[in-house]
Design brief:
about 950 residues, four-stranded mixed sheet, mainly beta, Immunoglobulin-like, 3 domains, 22-stranded antiparallel barrel, 49 strands, globular
Length: about 950
């Protein structure tokens, strides 16, 4: 109500005049980021600004007189109008409509010159990645997602950044050909966002167009084109190939509707790599290197229709089907081929977005998303799993058979209101997640051996006719057996939602203050009221119409929702639906007893999961300050300091573990449990963790004319925590601060630089260089030292009194392998894995043929930006991010009716061997060795684990 009253209040008088208005496309949809120039007539001075997230501009301090107002935006024709300010204190309004630039719609999109802006939406690195800058990214959806996460840089805390597709989370990536633009790290402290904007990735998909255009493409790769993994140096590399086929078509349906349709099919005949130590037929420890076929298919179908329902109402309906079929999944470096399973995923996504202009100063966005998932998997072997810590996992797959059905319903309503110097946002969302799952994970049981040596000695003794009692008396045998039984089905119904209100108050032409408050709630946990305030300022320094330096600061609270993955785990393994039994030092190996036998045995310990009745939503409080500078006409730079305090972080803890000092690892039946032995292990999801993180972020963006676009960032990161996430178990259940130390996400240095350039003969190069220092990891013991059934203990440092048999001398230090309960374990994540460097490069060239036309096209260079985009909210700081939008066509443009583009791309062009995290278990024959290539974006492993460098060739025909 107060907003309505405020809207109708008379504006206060001013000594100088004010000009305001909106910039819109032909459908009345507002255009954020449009450049607006106000020039006094007939030949007076001029001022420039840009439209905010609601397409609104405002210029103050204008003397009475006549003015010409010019607006332009990428993909639209320039438009101008005139307005008169008759007297001091008068407030004039002029709206400008931009027509679609038909002659540029396919390819030649000029890159916008980077510049420093005051508005919260215009932090220096909140820019659009589009056109030729997109060409440096992989066409493969898996690799694309991994690269996007690396491009956005680290977020706050252990969870990393989030990807939003047309304003929604939870969906699958569209084909790259359907992506209109990517926005990174825009307005980090926006009250509209549930998470801090650092690391946030917004993907906007392509709408239809006023003329027909389309393309078909094919990309190919096989073993002969790649450099093999170093781990296959003594093996014959497997034969494999990949086809990536795509097609899209867009155009008008009638004068009030248009469509865009994209299709992608990926057929991969690839292999997984196993590289570990096993026992041969004579029970000797031997290296084992093998490749296992891992065929995969992916199908994406994505139609979209845009309707003009009236002069001030546009409706978009976007559907996406995402289907995956994979064979021999689950096999990796230390998981043997017998643990493989097949899986299928069928995902459906429907988005309906309605944009309404309610008045000259109010825009309402209504969005609805429906997601439906049907995921299934089936193991190829149902024998008991064999887990030899530090060596291999063999036997059958413990993941079991799964049938998962999940439906998401999400409704959003966001309103943007302008009034004088205020830009107000308010609205909210409501989401329902219904998930049903039939699963029999671990129904086959699993035997655990603490080392390959223990397994070897056990198998040799069994061959020699010894009994398990005799083997255990000699100090060998499995240390644990666990098995699960019960009902298959579990169900959760999760509800969550939020309301928010924010105001960007432009106190003066050089100072904006932002305030906001957000309320969040969900149903399953006991915490139903989370309040998240946000504040921010932006201050332009110096004189002149266009600021050269902007200082920003912001503070806010951001909550993390408790996920349905943990909800359904707690519902399934609650002791009623399913129950896990853990037996220490089982005497029945290799046979598996009946569940009834285990239930009646005093040696088996029941184990259940539950959600703590005191669990509350985790949150972090983030403080940031930045300075942004217009270095040259074509370049901006920013430096940001970001400090984060994470509280109530999620972890898992055994709340019925033996009390301190009562458990003897050599006697698993020992220990006094606070809730009694009959209750067994109770694994409880808790919100008792913390983290502290400091980041220093430098960002640069260059757009030098029409031939070069560069972006880059560097991040220094220092993080400490006592949890690695919700599924990380506390090492010592009674002293969580023993786990406080260097965080696993404390990757100290990261840097990325990329961009595109046009070379002679219309050849375009797009490249990206990514580098990061090593990831921390914990040195661990294979024993269960605390009676929790979890093998995650850390050693203590060896002393002069440590028995020689318990001393391990390593390059990471000298450790005690059998620490007593009175000895302090080493801190977590004291070791660091190898650093990574990755250079990707794409080269392309377009050839035109057919009749002459009046517009250029070819390759990926479609229009980016403009129309029905709303990214607004309070606060906002520069940070790491990507280069500007616009750019060039893929390999040059052509004005012929048809365009044929050829390109070649290389992942890991320099064939750098980026190694994965070393084996961290003391006593393993592989301890301290990296036995796999790096994951994520730092090797070609995403595309194929047996290749160190991937080279793809592609062709494309467009019209």
């Amino acid at each position: 109500m107060f907003l309505i009253l405020w809207t109708n209040c008379p504006a206060s008088s001013q000594q100088a005049g004010t000009l305001q208005g909106r910039v819109m496309d032909p459908s009345e949809a507002v255009i954020p980021g449009a450049a607006v120039k106000v020039e006094a007539l007939p030949s007076g001075p001029s001022k420039t600004t840009t439209t905010d997230g609601a397409g609104h501009y405002q210029m103050e301090g204008l003397a009475p007189g006549r003015y010409r107002v010019t607006a332009e935006a990428q993909g639209f024709q320039q438009a101008a109008g005139e307005v008169t300010i008759p007297a001091a204190g008068h407030r004039a309004t002029l709206d400008i409509h931009l027509a679609i630039a038909e002659q540029k719609q396919q390819v030649v999109v000029q890159g916008s010159t980077p510049r420093v802006e005051l508005s919260p939406q215009s932090n220096a690195s909140a820019v659009v990645v589009s056109g030729s800058d997109l060409d440096a990214l992989s066409n493969d959806p898996d690799e694309l997602q991994s690269q996007l996460q690396a491009l956005a840089g680290p977020s706050v805390g252990p969870n990393g950044g989030e990807i939003y597709i047309d304003g929604f989370t939870g969906g699958d990536l569209p084909p790259k050909s359907a992506i209109r633009s990517i926005r990174v790290n825009s307005n980090p402290f926006s009250v509209q966002n549930d998470r801090l904007g650092y690391g946030r990735i917004d993907i906007l998909t392509k709408p239809g167009a006023n003329n027909f255009h389309g393309r078909v493409s094919a990309e190919y790769n096989d073993a002969n084109m790649n450099a093999m993994s170093k781990f296959l140096a003594d093996s014959k590399p497997p034969a494999y190939h990949t086809w990536l086929l795509g097609a899209n078509l867009g155009g008008p349906i009638n004068k009030n509707a248009s469509f865009y349709f994209s299709y992608q099919r990926r057929n991969i005949d690839r292999a997984n790599l196993v590289n570990t130590e096993i026992l041969d037929s004579n029970l000797n420890q031997v290296p084992y290197v093998a490749t296992v076929d891992n065929p995969r298919t992916l199908t994406i179908v994505n139609p979209r229709v845009d309707f003009q329902l009236g002069e001030k109402n546009t409706l978009t309906v976007n559907y996406r089907y995402f289907g995956i079929a994979e064979g021999n999944d689950g096999v990796d470096t230390q998981s043997l081929p017998s643990t493989a399973f097949d899986r299928q995923h069928r995902h459906h996504s429907l988005q309906i977005m309605d944009n309404q202009i309610l008045s000259a100063n109010m825009v309402n966005e209504i969005r609805f998303q429906y997601l439906h998932f049907h995921n299934s998997q089936a193991p190829l072997n149902t024998d008991p799993t064999l887990d030899v810590i530090g060596a291999f996992t063999g036997g059958g797959s413990d993941s079991g058979s799964t049938q998962r059905y999940e439906s998401h319903y999400e409704f959003q309503d966001y309103v943007t209101l302008t009034r004088g110097k205020h830009l107000i946002q308010f609205g909210g969302f409501y989401r329902i997640i219904r998930r049903s799952e039939d699963a029999n994970a671990n129904f086959n049981g699993a035997f655990t051996f603490n080392s390959l040596s223990d397994y070897q000695q056990t198998e040799q003794a069994l061959r020699n006719g010894m009994t398990m009692e005799q083997i255990q008396a000699a100090g060998y045998g499995p240390s644990q057996f666990n098995i699960t039984g019960g009902k298959l089905n579990a169900f959760v119904n999760r509800l969550d939602g939020a309301l928010f209100l924010g105001d960007d108050w432009k106190i003066s032409p050089r100072f904006t203050a932002s305030f906001g408050l957000r309320f969040e709630s969900e149903n399953v946990i006991s915490d139903h009221a989370d309040w998240a305030p946000r504040v921010g300022i932006a201050w332009a320094l110096g004189g002149g119409a266009n600021p050269k330096t902007v200082v920003r600061a912001g503070w806010g609270m951001f909550y993390q929702r408790f996920d349905d993955d943990e909800m359904i785990q707690a519902e399934r393994l609650n002791g009623t639906n399913q129950l896990t039994y853990i037996v220490s030092n089982p005497k029945f190996y290799p046979a598996v007893p009946a569940l009834s036998t285990l239930a009646a045995s005093s040696q088996s310990l029941p184990t259940t999961y539950r959600i703590s009745p005191h669990l509350r939503s985790p949150y972090d409080m983030d403080l940031a300050a930045s300075i942004e500078r217009q270095v040259t006409r074509d370049a901006t730079a920013s430096l940001t300091y970001l400090y984060s305090r994470g509280n109530r972080r999620l972890l898992t803890n055994d709340v019925n573990a033996p009390l301190p000092g009562t458990y003897n690892p050599s006697d698993p039946t020992s220990g006094v449990r606070p809730l009694g032995d009959a209750a067994g292990n109770i694994y409880e999801y808790q919100s008792t963790g913390i983290f502290r993180q400091t980041q220093l972020i430098a960002n640069v963006h260059v757009n030098a004319g029409n031939r070069l676009s560069l972006f880059g960032y560097y991040v220094f990161n220092h993080s400490r925590s006592n949890t690695d996430g919700v599924n990380s178990f506390a090492t010592n259940p009674w002293n969580l601060m023993q786990d406080y130390g260097r965080a696993r996400f404390d990757i100290r240095n990261r840097a990325t630089i990329g961009g595109s350039a046009e070379l002679p003969f219309a050849v375009r190069l797009s490249s990206m260089l990514m580098t990061a220092s090593g990831q921390p990891f914990s040195i661990r013991l294979p024993q269960d030292l605390y009676g929790t059934g979890i093998h995650n203990a850390r050693p203590s440092l060896a002393t002069s009194s440590t028995p020689a048999a318990d001393v391990a001398v390593t390059r990471y230090g000298t450790f005690n392998l059998a620490p007593s309960s009175s000895e302090t374990p080493i801190a977590p994540n004291t070791a660091t894995g190898p650093a990574n460097v990755m250079l990707n490069l794409r080269a392309s060239r377009t050839f035109g043929f057919g009749p002459q036309i009046d517009k250029a096209h070819g390759g990926e260079g479609t229009v980016q930006g403009g129309g029905r985009q709303h990214h607004h909210g309070p606060g906002g700081l520069g940070g790491r991010g990507l280069g500007g939008g616009g750019g060039f066509s893929l390999g040059g443009a052509t004005e012929r009716r048809f365009a044929f583009t050829v390109s070649a791309s290389a992942l890991n062009l320099l064939n750098t061997v980026n190694l994965g995290t070393p084996v961290s278990t003391l006593g393993s024959p592989l301890f301290g060795q990296s036995i796999s290539l790096a994951g994520g974006p730092y090797s070609a492993q995403v595309g194929n684990p047996v290749a160190n460098r991937l080279v793809n060739v592609s062709v494309e025909l467009s019209f």
